[in-house]
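hiii so my PI (J.) wants the whole complex modelled not just the main chain, which honestly fair. so below is everything: two entries, each one labled with what it is. i double checked the lines twice but i was tired so who knows lol
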Amino acid sequence: MAREKEMIAKALKQGQKALSEYESKEFLKSFGVPVTKEILAKDLKEAKKAAGQIGYPVVLKACAWALMHKTEKNLVRVGIRDEKELEQAFAEITKTAGKEIDGVLVAEMVKGARELIVGLTRDPQFGPCVMFGLGGIMTEILKDVAFRVAPLEDYDAADMLEEIKAKKILDPFRGEEKANREVLKKALIAIGQIGLDFPEVAEIDINPLIIRKDGNPVAVDALVTLKAQ
Amino acid sequence: MDPIIERFAPLFSPRTLAVVGASKDARKWGFTVLRNLISGGFTGKIYPVNPREPEIMGLKVFPSLAAIPGEIDLAIVIVPSPQVLSVLQDCRQRGVKAVFIITSGFGETGDEGKSIEKEIARIAEEGRILLAGPNGQGLVNTKVKMYALMGAITPEVGHISLVSQSGNVGGTLMSRGTQLQVGFQKFISSGNEAFLKTEDYLEYFGADPDTRVILAYVEGIKDGRRFVEVAGRVARKKPVLLLKGGRTRAGNRATASHTGSMSSEDALLTDALKQAGVIQVDGMEDLFDLGVAFIRQPLPRGKRAGILTIGGGWGVLAADAAEREGLDVVPLPPGVIAELDRFLPAWWSRVNPVDTVAGTAGGMLLKSLKVLLACPEIDGLILLGIGHNYPLAKKIKESPFYPDFGLDKIADQMMQDDLATAAEIVSLMDQYQKPVVTSSEAAAYSRVVGNQALQILEREGIITYTTPDKAARVLATLAKRSEFLRKRRSE
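here's the output for the full assembly
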């Protein structure tokens, strides 16, 4: 945990109010939350190399802690099929984003029809609470989520998966495998534990967490917001 | 002794009880509470305290707490609000162990009241006084006949204990108990909870060997984390049912001025209660009806429900409700169908719900009940129509033709059938260790006709519900509790 503590301390020292997407995922990954394969590229050359390593198609996103709503700011390009498209996307993103970015995130393009949300919230009454539910663009409309007060036991995490109305999307779905519940449960338990161990983490938002065709969940976007202690 | 039991003994089982602010004026609460205590037959000693009266209702009155000889376990405080702090100081000096402040006019009135409440809590803390209230309607322990209440409500001794942030919700539940012959063990109207909170009472009820089911009415929770932690521990031992008031914005406005605490966000609370294993209900009626079921019903091993009815519509509605509530209305195994074929009329339903189509004649309801309870593929039963014949037989006996046409034999047989079935349900439940939840149209007017069949069940602690939906919800609640315990124990 020392490394993660250091990561947070460094961000706070630099005046960050959140971890960047890249940092957020690195942070979560170290607690066993599966995240997308991705590389932070400083320039076009690095981006091309990264895309080569990850394999096309890829996603490009501007990366900086202050960019908490990248899509609205037109800083995301998906489905980039080759180097030519990558060059264009890279140019567009860096132009729109301006100077204040850490780099451009080159990430695998995750295939999977099922989008979930996992989060950590701090309630004045209950303290750190974990949220799980239906993710993607419908999250706020359907509000199909379940909460648990941290720490979570295995049965708490299992209950959360059973509790949402859309629980059937965890079963085999349109030719895609059933979701890996063990990995999901472990992620939920880990998020709750982060809430207890890191008072400097204000909130966590993993949205979407996509279920791959083979059933394995992966955090496609993640945001860890911070508060100075 | 369990330290929790020991800590709460002066409050709930006092041997000596002072009523500070006792009055001779029958229009004052200081009179009413004392009257309720005396007429309830409190087994301990009562010391009315009033500096101006020598005697009230035949009891010697003491001018002050200091003038009372010996130990004082509990002081009920009913003085005007400006005097409460000084009375509390007196209690502290006198070494009073527990105090219940009935007086209102504190946190619920605004910031000034809130700061007085903080002072009340501080004195209690420093003086090691177990302090309940302020702004509570009182408390009950039926075991020692302590009815220290503003309302003249005297439940019988039972196994349910209740904590309520509203006195009148508490009174309503206990009155429903009186109507249905269901007793209570302990009750406390927790008021503004300046010191002792709902979760403290939950913890006590959890430890109390005389309490088997715990009910709570809650409007505001001050420390949610502690609440679910305590409730979670208690719910592993005993069923805890909770009704939350102020879940909507309109309801929330009403509570903000009511008990002086803000409600927490509803979705989070609902899930936190689920996590703790607390059974959240939607209304006062369910709080009582679902709670009572835990007293006598064995927990089902699973959620496979059998439905037995004497009439079609009730069975259909019960099946719908059972599915809705999460029960499985399982198909009947061929062996069960064959057994029922042996004595039911040829046109019986041959599916679950089992519709005997012939009423209860010839003991068919009881025979069918036995077959279904013996079936290993059924975990619990909904029995519809019990007590149905009793009022009909009574009508026959009152008719002008009675006892001609052999009506006497018919009426007697009908009554006998109902009484015999009712009398056997409980032993069958115990024998098979499966719940039998009863519901009948006869329950709707059982008081009017003095339905003895239903009374037999009531005496055993089994309520016959007036709708099939309610019976289904009760069975589903038992099944969910059983599942909760199974999951927690397998960890």
